[in-house]
Design brief:
The protein has 112 residues and is α+β, with helices and mostly antiparallel strands. It has one domain. Helices cover 20% and strands 45% of the residues. It has a five-stranded antiparallel sheet with strand order 3-2-1-4-5, covered by helices on one side. The protein is globular.
């Protein structure tokens, strides 16, 4: 069952995290009345996970993902009307869940 929860960004960081601490990107956690959850927009860090002939992706794929992450962060900053990732903390959000599974979130631009 799809539900929407009103809450806030509880913590935010840009750097290494997510799967085994090997993903470079933005990492967010959300809190709302019924609990909380986390989300990361990230990709394998080039200094931790090296590309090899056995990978199903190329360095070009990684470059594309890095670009998508930066554009994503730029849009978040714009929507939240802030200039740094640290300022995203406590920004109001609407989190969409499917049961207990995170689906998406949006910044509540209408209340900023």
């Amino acid at each position: 069952m799809i539900t929407k929860e009103l809450g806030k960004i509880d913590s935010v960081s840009f750097g290494l995290g997510d799967y085994q601490g090997a993903m470079l990107g933005i990492h967010l956690s959300f809190s709302f009345d019924n609990g909380g959850c986390g989300y990361s927009k990230s990709s394998w860090d080039k200094n931790i996970i090296e590309h090899s002939e056995y990978c199903k992706w190329s360095e070009s794929d990684r470059d594309k993902e890095y670009s998508e992450i930066m554009r994503y962060v730029s849009d978040l900053l714009k929507d939240a009307k802030v200039t740094t990732v640290n300022e995203l903390k406590n920004i109001p959000v609407e989190v969409t869940l499917d049961g207990n599974t995170f689906k998406s979130f949006r910044i509540l631009i209408e209340v900023l």
